[in-house]
Design a protein that fits this description.
The complex is a heterodimer of chains A (about 110) and B (about 110). With about 110 residues, chain A is mostly beta strands. Chain A has no helices and 11 strands. Chain B has about 110 residues and is mostly beta strands. In chain B, strands 2, 4, 5, 9, 10 and 11 form a 6-stranded mixed β-sheet that branches. Chain B has a 5-stranded antiparallel β-sheet with strand order 1-3-8-7-6, with no helix packed on it. In chain B, strand 7 and strand 8 form a beta hairpin. Chain B is globular, with a radius of gyration of 13 Å. Classes of the chains: A mainly beta (about 110), B mainly beta (about 110). At the A-B interface, strand 9 and strand 10 of A face strand 5, strand 9 and strand 10 of B.
Chain lengths: ~110, ~110
């Protein structure tokens, strides 16, 4: 079974630039999560989708972050404009149902300079 | 809301030694998951425990959920450098339907 795919693996941008991350979940998984993991901390949920609807985006900094999941499959997470404190690993995860454990992608390491 | 506390925060062991990592929940656990993460990379799912007293093993890693379902332990036998990384426990919070993570344990294995 193919896992959760994310791209790119690494990205370095200057502050105030824009960046987008892409995630392809495991086929058939209705729930998709985006997490932000800052070095030394556990993952923090940014947004949770159930199919193409948003279930929870309470911790998403909406002034600069946006995410969409068109057609309930792939998802993109965008940051515009980026700040230095956005440097982190961005993890995408999916699960068959929100009551089940999630499978994670390898993450995108973002460095903002 | 539910919280997961892991101990120890960090661990350095000599290759070949056994070790245990604990994950304690503030509320009853309905599903407890263990993940491993290499620095800067994604999380690798290790195993899931659901029933009190349940114990599962994968290669040299064994995890157990206690009878009261508020604590889980992860035990590594004869540790190897390949076991190094950050171990995270995760759980479903039935009150909020959110998926929460423990504080993490950073493991280093000296060759």
């Amino acid at each position: 079974e193919a896992g959760v795919a994310q791209s790119p693996r690494y990205k370095i941008i200057e502050k105030r630039q824009s960046v987008a991350f892409w995630c392809n979940p495991i086929s058939g998984h209705a729930t998709l999560y985006w997490y932000q993991q800052i070095l030394g901390q556990g993952p923090k949920l940014l947004i949770q989708f159930q199919n193409n609807g948003v279930v929870d985006d309470s911790q998403l900094p909406k002034d600069r972050f946006s995410a969409e999941r068109l057609k309930g499959v792939d998802s993109t997470l965008k940051i515009q404009p980026a700040k230095l404190e956005d440097s982190a690993v961005y993890l995408c995860a999916s699960s068959l149902d929100f009551r089940l454990g999630a499978f994670f992608g390898q993450g995108t390491r973002l460095t903002v300079v | 809301s539910q919280e997961l506390e892991q101990s120890p925060q960090s661990l350095i062991v000599q290759e070949g030694k056994n070790l245990t990592i604990n994950c304690t929940s503030s509320k009853t656990l309905y599903g407890l998951y263990w993940y491993k993460q290499k620095y800067g990379e994604g999380l690798i799912f290790l195993m899931m425990l659901q029933k009190g007293g349940e114990e599962k093993s994968h290669e040299k890693i064994t995890a157990k959920l206690d009878e009261k379902k508020q604590q889980s332990s992860l035990h590594i036998t004869a540790s190897q450098p390949s076991h190094a990384g950050i171990y995270l426990c995760g759980a479903d919070d039935p009150g909020t339907y959110k998926y929460i993570f423990g504080t993490g344990t950073r493991l280093k294995v000296l060759a």
